[in-house]
């Protein structure tokens, strides 16, 4: 085992401990997603072999290559793959064919393509609606006032199963400030979850994981706290360095 793999295992253990502590403190059952963007499959494999099952990927090509790598080399690990990044129309097909979830749905055109391209034998694709909860500059996510109409339209797509909401609040200076958008998202989720049958609220990353659990997240997305700092010049692609 290389030294860096040992470090990854230690970081994962620390994240799990912190999440278990927060779940106990706030009486929650928040699950952990490991976000592996820019890291190669061997780093993800170590985390998967330590029992982690839910993985998130941001880039279509890189993510699809990793799904294929695991399907080929470690089908026994039965990973649940979430696509969590922006998705362009020309990349929907490989994502619809491979991923279990797409957590960044904010455009009907993309949702319809995923619905049309989802292979029947895989069953419905789970999706989350991405909400732009606090950052009017950001291009990702629908605005809260658009949510009910958007959710109703999505519910008509038979090959998609809408499970809830996702957001990426802007980083804040203090825990109190960080909780403002997290609580706003939770309120939006609570206001609509029964009508739409939602069960998943994905919020919280490395820096705000515990705040997010306190505010009611059901699924935190943790990258750097598990895998270390990202080097975007080393984006992992099959064939180039795999
Ligand atoms: C990269 C990313 C994460 C993980 O971020 P960290 O700060 O490294 O934990 C979570 N969610 C999304 C949507 C991301 O793009």
Question: What does it look like?
Answer:
This protein has 242 residues and is α/β, with parallel strands linked by helices. The protein contains nine helices and eight strands. The chain has an eight-stranded parallel beta sheet with strand order 7-6-5-4-3-2-1-8. Helix 2 links the parallel strand 1 and strand 2. The two termini are 18 Å apart. The site of pyridoxal-5'-phosphate (PLP) has 14 residues, from strand 8 and helix 9.
Strand content: 15-25%
**Termini Cα gap:** 18 Å
Radius of gyration: 17 Å
What integer is the average pLDDT?
94
Structural class: alpha/beta
Q: Kindly report the spatial arrangement of strands forming the biggest sheet.
A: 7-6-5-4-3-2-1-8
Basic shape = globular
Would you list the SSEs in sequence order as H and E? Answer: HEHEHEHEHEHEHEHEH
Number of strands: 8
Key attributes of the depicted protein:
242 residues; alpha/beta; eight-stranded parallel β-sheet; globular; binds pyridoxal-5'-phosphate
């Amino acid at each position: 085992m290389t030294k860096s793999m040992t470090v990854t295992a230690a970081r994962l253990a620390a994240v799990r401990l912190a999440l278990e502590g927060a779940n106990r403190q706030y009486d929650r059952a928040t699950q952990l997603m490991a976000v592996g963007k820019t890291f190669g499959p061997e780093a993800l494999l170590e985390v998967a072999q330590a029992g982690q099952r839910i993985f998130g990927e941001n880039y279509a090509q890189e993510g699809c290559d990793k799904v294929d790598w695991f399907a080929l080399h470690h089908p026994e690990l039965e990973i649940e793959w979430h696509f969590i990044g922006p998705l362009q129309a020309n990349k929907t097909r490989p994502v619809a064919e491979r991923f279990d979830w797409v957590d960044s749905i904010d455009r009907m055109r993309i949702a319809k393509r995923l619905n049309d391209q989802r292979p029947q034998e895989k069953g419905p694709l789970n999706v989350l609606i991405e909400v732009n909860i606090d950052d009017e500059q950001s291009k990702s996510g629908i605005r809260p006032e658009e949510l009910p109409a958007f959710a109703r339209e999505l519910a008509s797509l038979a090959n998609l199963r809408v499970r809830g909401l996702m957001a990426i609040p802007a980083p804040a200076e203090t825990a109190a400030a960080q909780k403002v958008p997290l609580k706003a998202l939770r309120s939006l989720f609570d206001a609509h979850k029964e009508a739409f049958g939602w069960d998943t609220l994905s919020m919280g990353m490395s820096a705000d994981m515990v705040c997010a659990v306190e505010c009611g997240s059901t699924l935190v997305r943790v990258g750097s706290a598990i895998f270390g700092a990202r080097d975007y010049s080393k984006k992992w692609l099959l064939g180039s360095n795999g």
